[in-house]
Amino acid sequence: MDVSKYAALFLAESREHLNACNGSLLEWERAPASVEPVDRLFRSIHTIKGMAATMGYAAVAQLAHSAENLLDALRHDRVGATPTVFQLLFRAVDALGQAVEGVAAGSEADADTLLIAELDSAATGEGTPAAAGPQSPVASRPATVGTAPPTRRASDAPRSRPVHVTIRPGALMRGARAALVLRRAEGLGEVSGLRPAVAQLERDEFDGRFFFRLQTRLPDAEITSALGTVGEVEAVQLQEPAAEVEVEARSRQIRVDLRRLDALMKHVGELVVAKNRLSALSVGAADPALVELGERIARLVSAMQTEVLAARMTPVGEVFERFPRLARDLSRDLGKRIRFDMEGEEIELDRSILDEIGDPLLHLIRNAADHGIEPPDQRTSAGKPAEGRILLSATRERNTVALRVVDDGRGIDRARILEKARREGLATSDVDTLTDDLLVRVLARPGFSTAASVSGVSGRGVGVDVAMTRVRALGGTLEVRSELGRGSTFLIRVPLTLAIVRALLAEAGGERYAVPLAYVAETVEFDRRAVTSVRDREALVVRDQVIPTIHLRDLVSAPSQGQPARQPTVILEVGERRTALVVDALLGQQDIVVEPFDAPRGMPPFVGGATILADGKPALILDAAALL
Amino acid sequence: MNQTVLVCDDAIFMRTMISDILSQAGFEVVGEAESGLQAVEKYRMLKPDLVTMDIVMPDMGGIEAVREICKDDPAARILMCSAMGQQALVVEAIQAGAKDFVVKPFQPSRVLEAVQRVLA
Q: ipTM of this model?
């Protein structure tokens, strides 16, 4: 059998398992008495071994086999889980990772015989430092003794019965029907675990089916007949739902090559453009059938677009999961104590953005560990806990996802940065304080580093600028908040998806421009009477807030149109910064397909891309972040 | 003996229609009420087998009337007559003790089905 066509699948699954292994190892190391992580580790390694052997990757299989042996010994308490053993397992997982990547790249290396020997002797509890040293197991797991509690079921003891009720489709006020059923059920016994929730049922926000548990002594037949005779009830079933649902969820997952989804996305993108064009054409059409067909196609395309986008959404946890290991290694290498926490792993992002976001986060976490968190003694003398903390979090904010790297370390020394920025000509001498805004711009200058020495972890000045470049390429933004002695927060904000964005179309000087809605806070009228001036810059007062203005005509060097008293204005918002973009006219909203854009030489920085509009003509996409 | 009904609705039109549907099906309409207060009083007096109850009525609404009636007689068989869009009120009436409901505009067959269920 030719197995080469499975190589990609092998690689993808092995990577997943190895990532999971790192997670399990960390978890186990924190709580050596727990059984769960070691079982998961064992299963992952075992799976990798099986796949590798099938593919004929002997070196991978051999290494996995030895690691599996050691895990089995640990599982059965034949050897103790010492720090040395953990270190050995971490090394084994790393080596497996390298071996897997090696075969993927077409160069299968020989098995690491030394490591295999170490694993093997650790498994027999002989000859390794772990076993030869003083017997000091971190903990040995309690043996599972005893048998399952006897299952006793007296026939008259109340039993908890799962109840599924279906209201007849088309029945009026299904929520009130459900209330009748529930009231009747309460007369039979104790009702719990209602799904959907009462509030949803009462608002009719369900499909006519609901579920609850009923604790009662009554036989099944009596329950079904009592509840089944409530008006408009179509069916009452007493059975466990969980198994059924789970089987369904499992069997409905398939693996899809990302390139397939990319291609699908591209086609849908073109379809969206065609749809927009069709809608524009059919508006003027006299044939009502054509108009109706146009609307129908528009609805179908939107539905399809939503589905494809949803299929591409991936939890950020997939990128996050390698960071706990990174943080652990960093704290060891740097001789610091760092607690690393993550939040919001379930927040989803488009796969293509997720793939790009790992590197920027890596740089920011390294920076936080290296520059942010102080060595334990410094922390203690500053009155802080010896253990520093780094938090990586994801939150959904409007059409963007905010990723934060927060540390409680020493914070950024603005005076030192300002001095350095002046020396390098990045700041003029009249600037005497660094705002957070200016700070991030200075930090993001290529090659800018304040680290006294290059530490191998960071300090070469390729932290913030790399992060900034990547994030900006994604149409995102990078912000920093820092307080001396208290810590720093780096905030990356990226759009949910790249390919299709909803945009506001604006006109200036006869050309049309698209502004991604993710950064539009509101639209207002530019009223000459509400104009003021702040530090020689024109600004608009909107509800007592002073917002600097930019005239799109000036920006694109279109001739000024005199001074009309009123003009439509788009308030752009990135984080807490706002700017008012004054345009000639607003032309409504449209889904635009962002075309990859190799910016020609001389293209101004505020142009983030290009798109084709409904009438088939191109428009430039404005990069909100560059305007602020 | 025919089963007895008390019809409560503030609109004569509705009372007449419901009375007709039920009489034709062999029920005896022993009384009518045009407010919640009347409904409670007449229930105590007439002890009917069934009550049809409008939700929105002057001088004590239908839900309050259900509550009062059930306080005296938890076994009272009350059928709510509701308009579209009153789901929240219907749910409240059910929690107060109403046994079933029908939704206006009425179809005679639906009303009778509901009555049978309540009396079953």
A: 0.85
Q: Is A4-132 assigned to CATH 1.20.120.160?
A: yes
Crossing angle between the packed helical segments A7-30 and A323-334, to the nearest 10 degrees: 50
Whether A608 contacts A621, CB under 8 Å: yes
**Under 8 Å CB-to-CB from B25, ≥6 apart: which residues?**
B112, B115
The pLDDT tens digits of the residues spanning A198-225 come to: 877 877 778 888 988 888 888 888 888 8
Nearest to A173 among B95, B103, B113 (CB): B103
Q: Are A487 and A584 in contact, with CB atoms under 8 Å apart? A: no
A556-560: long-range pairs with CB below 8 Å, 24+:
A556/A508, A556/A509, A556/A511, A556/A513, A558/A508, A558/A509, A558/A510, A558/A511, A559/A509
The whole-angstrom separation of Cα A416 and Cα A369 is 20
Taking the domains of chain A in order of start, what are their residue ranges?
Answer: 4-132, 159-244, 258-315, 317-495, 500-627
Give dist(CA A229, CA A185) in Å, integer.
Answer: 12
A231/B120 CB distance under 8 A: no
Which class for B104: exposed (0-12), middle (13-18), buried (19 or more C-beta within 10 A)?
Answer: middle
Q: Cα–Cα distances in Å, from A412 out to A415, A480, A488, A489, B82?
A: 9, 10, 7, 10, 67
Q: In this structure, what token pair is assigned to residue A466?
A: 């790399």
Which pLDDT score, from 0 to 100, does residue A160 have?
Answer: 79
Q: Which tokens hold the place of A568?
A: 């439509």
Give the integer Cα–Cα distance in Å for A582 and B61: 57
Tell me whether the CATH fold assigned to A4-132 matches the one assigned to A317-495. Answer: no
List all residues 6 or more positions away from A91 whose beta carbon is below 8 Å from its beta carbon: A115
| CATH number for region A159-244 | 3.30.70.1110
Give chain B's residues under pLDDT 50: none
**Checking DSSP bridges between strand A585-593 and strand A500-508, what pairing results, if any?**
antiparallel
Q: Would you call the peptide bond into A315 cis, given omega within 30 degrees of 0 as the criterion?
A: no
The answer to whether A417 and A535 have CB atoms below 8 angstroms apart is no
Q: Domains of chain B by range and CATH? A: 4-73+82-119 (3.40.50.2300)
CA A603 to CA A39: how far, in whole Å? 56
Stretches in chain A below the pLDDT threshold 50: 127-155, 241-251, 452-461
Both tokens of residue A468? 């900034």
Residue B83 in contact with partner chain A when CB distance is under 8 A: no
Q: How far apart are CA A518 and CA A397, in angstroms?
A: 9
Q: Check: CATH 3.40.50.10810 for A317-495?
A: no
Asked if B95 has any chain A CB less than 8 Å from its own CB, the reply is yes
Query: Which token pair is A356?
Result: 């790009």
B101 and A176 within 8 Å at the Cβ level: the answer is: yes
Q: Whole-prediction pTM value?
A: 0.48
DSSP per residue over A535-582, as a string?
TTEEEEEETTEEEEEEEHHHHTTPPP----SEEEEEEEEETTEEEEEE
Whether the CB-CB separation of A606 and A557 falls below 8 Å is answered with: no
CATH topology of domain A500-627: OB fold (Dihydrolipoamide Acetyltransferase, E2P) (2.40.50)
Cα–Cα nearest to A83, from A35, A136, A18:
A136
Q: Tokens standing for A548? A: 């600097």
Give the one of A179, A229, A230 whose C-beta lies nearest to B91's C-beta: A179
Q: With CA atoms as reference, report the closest residue to A478 among A395, A405, A572.
A: A405
Residue in A closest to B115 by C-alpha? A231
The length of chain B in residues reads 120
B84 neighbourhood in chain A, CB within 8 Å: 172
Strand ranges inside A238-368, DSSP E: 313-315, 338-343, 348-350
Candidates A167, A168, A174, A180: best to mutate against B (most CBs of B within 10 A) is A180
Q: A292-342 pLDDT, tens per residue?
A: 888 888 888 878 887 888 888 888 988 898 888 888 888 888 889 999 999
